[in-house]
Design goal:
about 270 residues; mainly alpha; globular
Amino acid sequence: MRKHPVLSFAILAIVPTWALQFLFLVLGWDLFGAKIAELFILLGAATLVTARINGRAGVRRLFAGVVRWRMGLGRFAFVLLAMPVLTLIVAAAGGALQWPAGGIGKDVLMYLFATLIFGALLGNVWEETAWAGFAQSRLTERHGLLRGALLTAIPFALIHLPLAWESNGLHDTSGKDLAITWAVLIVSAPFVRYLFGMTFADTGGSILAVGILHASVNASGALGSVDSWWPGTVAMVLLTVLVAASRRRRQARLDDLGYASAGSVSTLTR
């Protein structure tokens, strides 16, 4: 564990999660219970490895990110609203926008409930305690933000593979549907982990912010106003690219200011 903490975490998380989810699938049970158990497995694996390596102080630091609020109003609006707005724009451009059953007001309320209550507080904050707070933060510290995200995407995608059978079960899921679901998952995982990694860095290690954004990504893919699954995925990729470009421009401006200041100081002291 001390030599390979993220690999240890991945094995401790993925193996029992797969075993439990495939058991549910074989028995024909709904996967909701197995997905709830996955949260406990992820948290348990992250806590166990952290305690082994860093002791109780490390565990306290890990869970401190859950209540860390390093967001102004603009950042909070971004993590809550950027995904649904962009998803609706993509859906409108691609002809996948529809009038939601129950009206727009109901769709908005369902999104807010799915994001802030059911998704973030009850699920994704705890999921991201393991992924962003433990695994990705360690890989980012060692390999940088982009490589850390790409490496985290591997176990993140692996643990979600059994969900391809969730809708139709083991026997009624076609090979084509399975291939499409896995392809979308594998291709989108690096983007979503990079998006979450940038948010984690920009909020000073706020797992809460990443959890809300994660829940927003999930809820945006289930909007009643959108008549297909693909606008949410495309919107997530576009948002990742836009955030990365914005961060690069901001860093370039800071570098320019630093160069200009250094030049001014040099001129004044000559």
